[in-house]
């Protein structure tokens, strides 16, 4: 039961940070999203984001900051195996399934639903 509470709290804190960035600092949603991705990448590069995921589960792995962590993790894993070129290829290898799924589901939704414009 405790893991669910921590997932809710940590995920909520990440969302509150994003909302504060938009409301107080008047950042656009795109700037807010980019900042959260970069923050996740920095925390992942420092080895801190995986500890947060172990502690909070989906509360840390579902928000957009986890995407930045995945990018860094993929780049570092491929860099160890193939060298410097792995930094570029690893980013796409580890995140390709999620991006592909988003594109496919968005396409299917566009076929099913019609915009009101």
From TrEMBL:
Q: Which gene encodes it?
A: spoVAE
Q: Which InterPro entries match?
A: Spore_V_AE (IPR014204), SpoVA (IPR005562)
Q: What is this protein called?
A: Stage V sporulation protein AE
Q: Where are the transmembrane segments?
A: 6-25, 32-49, 84-113
PANTHER family the UniProt entry points to: STAGE V SPORULATION PROTEIN AC-RELATED (PTHR38450), STAGE V SPORULATION PROTEIN AEB (PTHR38450:SF2)
Pfam families assigned to the protein according to its UniProt record, in alphabetical order: SpoVAC_SpoVAEB (PF03862)
Task: Name the keywords, alphabetized.
Answer: Membrane, Transmembrane, Transmembrane helix
Q: Has the keyword Iron been applied to this entry? A: no
Do the record's keywords include Ubl conjugation? no
């Amino acid at each position: 039961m405790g893991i669910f509470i921590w997932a809710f709290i940590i995920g909520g804190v990440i969302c509150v940070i994003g909302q504060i960035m938009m409301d107080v600092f008047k950042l656009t949603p795109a700037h807010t999203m980019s900042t959260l991705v970069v923050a996740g990448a920095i925390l992942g590069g420092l080895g801190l984001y995986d500890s947060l995921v172990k502690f909070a589960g989906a509360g840390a792995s579902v928000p957009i900051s986890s995407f930045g962590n995945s990018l860094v993790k993929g780049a570092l894993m491929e860099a160890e195996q193939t060298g410097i070129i792995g930094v570029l290829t690893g980013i796409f290898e580890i995140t390709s399934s999620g991006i592909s799924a988003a594109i496919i589901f968005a396409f299917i939704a566009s076929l099913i639903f019609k915009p009101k414009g």
